[in-house]
Design brief:
heterodimer; A: 77 residues; mainly alpha; 3 helices; elongated; B: 244 residues; 0% strand
Chain lengths: 77, 244
């Protein structure tokens, strides 16, 4: 009885964990992972350029628009 | 006794942050529904109030830049998702969906909490609320007039929050596809602004640059909508020729 209860609890918590992971994946990544990856890379490069003394505030908005265009092109075929 | 200089300065500085907070809450509420958005707003205000009570003037030591990078990056990528959706919808259907809300649209749950709306509102309120609290702590400590600074921030919250509540009906009249596009551009603008600011990089013109960022995303969206429509027209012109 304890074993079946533990099994059920384990299944429920695993299902919750999967749902939690799916929610955050949908929230951050959505239907195209490349846009999120491009934004993350752009922010990392911006920070590196900033530490090297180069003003790079313009980079993330530029990359975001380019990545959005590439994503739209892929989806619309 | 109210210090007029501290009151005016704090009111204006807090108003800038609260405008950003209210824009996010009204935009998210109009698209995803008000219940979960207001729950997120309430939870965010409660967290900020608890932090103010617990930390007091030590709030100035909160690592606000770390919060800006985390909250800003998440808002940025989520805003771009809505921007893409909005572009595709406006390109395909034009400005349809006036006022009507479709519960199955955008995976908005019919029952229970819509966690996307909750988190978007919560994050915006906590980040901006903390910035307002830091403004109050800084201005209040510098002039030794905490009461004036706190009252000014409260007045700014009432005035801007009231304007947001009044604007709610107006915003709900905007066609749904256009609203998603508009909120997508705003979330992308705020998100990119905060994420870059959190890296310790100053934007030219400070907070005013958010307007330039929003304009940049609007222009890009308009260009992509035009391109998608041209593609669709081109495809529909070619289709009958294939049949023949």
């Amino acid at each position: 009885m304890i074993v079946s209860w533990l099994n059920r609890a384990g299944t429920v918590s695993l299902r919750g964990l999967v749902a939690f992971g799916k929610f955050w994946y949908g929230f951050v990544i959505g239907d195209d992972w490349t846009v999120a990856a491009a934004v993350a890379a752009a922010l990392a490069v911006t920070w590196l350029l900033h530490t090297a003394g180069v003003a790079a505030w313009w980079l993330p908005p530029l990359v975001a628009v380019a990545a959005t265009g590439a994503s739209l092109r892929r989806i619309s075929g | 006794m109210i210090n007029p200089a501290v009151f005016t300065t704090t009111f204006l500085a807090a108003a800038v942050e609260i405008i950003e907070m209210v824009i996010i809450v009204v935009g998210v509420g109009a698209i995803r529904g008000w219940r979960s958005t207001l729950l997120g707003t309430g939870a965010g205000l409660a967290v900020v109030a608890a932090l103010i009570l617990a930390l007091g003037t030590a709030l100035t030591y909160v690592p606000i830049n770390v919060l800006r990078v985390v909250a800003g990056s998440l808002l940025f990528v989520f805003g771009l998702q809505w921007l893409r959706k909005g572009i595709r919808r406006v390109a395909a259907n034009g400005l349809r969906g006036m006022g009507a809300r479709n519960a199955t649209d955008d995976d908005i749950p019919a029952h229970g909490v819509d966690w996307i709306a909750f988190l978007l509102a919560f994050r915006g309120v906590v980040l901006e609320g903390l910035e307002v609290a830091i403004i109050v702590a800084t201005f209040g400590a510098a002039a030794g007039a905490f009461l004036s600074a706190a009252l000014a921030a409260a007045a700014a919250l009432v005035v801007i929050g009231g304007a947001g509540a009044l604007a709610r009906r107006l915003v709900e009249r905007i066609p749904r596809s256009a609203l998603q596009l508009l909120v997508g551009t705003l979330l992308s603008a705020f998100g990119s602004f905060w994420a870059v600011e959190g890296l310790g990089i100053a934007w030219p013109g400070a907070d005013l640059f958010i307007i330039a960022l929003a304009a940049w995303y609007v222009l890009a969206a308009a260009w992509y909508i035009r391109r998608l429509r041209r593609q669709t027209r081109h495809a529909s012109q070619l289709a009958p020729q294939h049949v023949r």
